[in-house]
Design goal:
The complex is a heterodimer of chains A (209) and B (105). Chain A has 209 residues and is mainly alpha-helical. Chain A has seven helices and no strands. In chain A, helix 2 (24-50) runs antiparallel to helix 6 (136-169). The radius of gyration of chain A is 20 Å and the shape is elongated. The N and C termini of chain B lie far apart (52 Å). The model of chain B is unreliable at 1-7 (pLDDT under 50). The chains are: A mainly alpha (209), B mainly alpha (105). The interface between A and B is large, with 60 and 54 residues.
């Protein structure tokens, strides 16, 4: 009981190694997300470098994009940010049922997005014969969107883990509250990266002349 | 509780829904602009508008959903520094490689 009280005191904003006035776990997550800009920046730059460079054999990604389909996918991911923040809000009000519902909804929307990406890749490969090794533009496209999809998949796993913990324990404890906040930050970051990808890769890409 | 140290300043669920509507409208505008450009050839104006719309969505999600505007300045600096570093670095690289020009015209 004494340990529990100690743990709760720590989670009430007084973690042990806190000299910045910010929870170290949260600071670590923001630092990690900040570094991810460099990671995705490299992949986006790589795509921009090759996406409309003429002379490659095979089809270019920008020739076969299905904008209506990708727009719906983007909308789905954007709305998953809403459900994520609603889960966070529900937990802050100690609405455990609401937290579970919104967590599951977020994971479900993320899964729909991933399903859409698998469908898109399958269409590109089977209908348009654009494989990973077709040309550098195709490689750059798959590398960028594939890594983003991997991030989404990791997010879905974390969301379902939190949902599972909540179901098993009947509630998310104070300790898991911070976990939910960190997963939420990660999830929103994945969303903002897609905002950039959707515009730069899909809407602004032009085939080589 | 730790999940929401700054709860009193955070938006309400109703405000979150309103923000989502704004984001959805901005996305619809982006897609509409894409098709308008295909039909009317807006040139560089299309690229600038699309980038501005994306930037607006980015700022809204970071500010309201990630709560950065309610957080301590330390976090804001961490995140903004990372973004500026990456944006500057890759702008320089892409400019050096001749990739950065306003496209779509």
């Amino acid at each position: 009981m004494a340990d529990l009280a100690h743990e709760q005191t720590m989670d009430l904003g007084h973690p042990e190694h806190e000299s910045t006035g910010v929870d170290n776990r949260k600071l670590g997550m923001w630092a990690f997300l900040s570094s991810e800009f460099l990671f995705f920046g490299a992949l986006i730059s790589n795509y921009l470098l090759y996406s409309n460079r003429p002379g490659f054999a095979g089809v270019y990604p920008s020739e076969i994009y299905d904008i209506p389909f990708t727009s719906v996918s983007s909308f789905v991911l954007l709305m998953s940010s809403l459900t994520m923040v609603l889960a966070h809000n529900a937990l802050s009000r100690n609405d455990q049922g609401g937290t579970r519902t919104w967590l599951f909804a977020t994971a479900a929307l993320g899964s729909v997005f991933l399903g859409g990406q698998v469908f898109e890749f399958t269409e590109f490969i089977t209908l348009h014969d654009m494989k990973l090794t077709t040309n550098p533009a195709a490689s750059a496209f798959y590398l960028l969107t594939g890594f983003h999809g991997t991030h989404v998949a990791i997010g879905v796993i974390m969301l379902l883990s939190l949902w599972g913990i909540s179901r098993r324990q009947g509630e998310l404890s104070e300790k898991h509250g911070m976990n939910l906040e960190l997963v939420g930050l990660y999830w929103h970051f994945v969303d903002i990266i897609w905002i950039v990808i959707f515009t730069v890769v899909y809407l602004l890409s032009v085939p080589p002349v | 509780m730790s999940v929401d140290e700054h709860t009193p300043h955070h938006p309400t669920p109703a405000q979150y829904w309103k923000i989502a509507v704004v984001l959805a409208v901005l996305t619809a505008l982006e897609v509409a602009l894409y098709y308008i450009h295909k039909a009317l050839e807006l040139g560089n104006f299309n690229s600038i508008l699309l980038i501005l719309l994306a930037a607006l969505k980015f700022v809204i999600v970071v500010g309201f959903y990630m709560h950065l505007r309610y957080e301590k300045p330390t976090l804001n600096r961490f995140f903004t520094a990372g973004f500026i570093l990456a944006a500057s670095l890759y702008t320089i690289v892409l400019t050096a490689l001749g990739v950065v020009t306003i496209r779509g015209g």
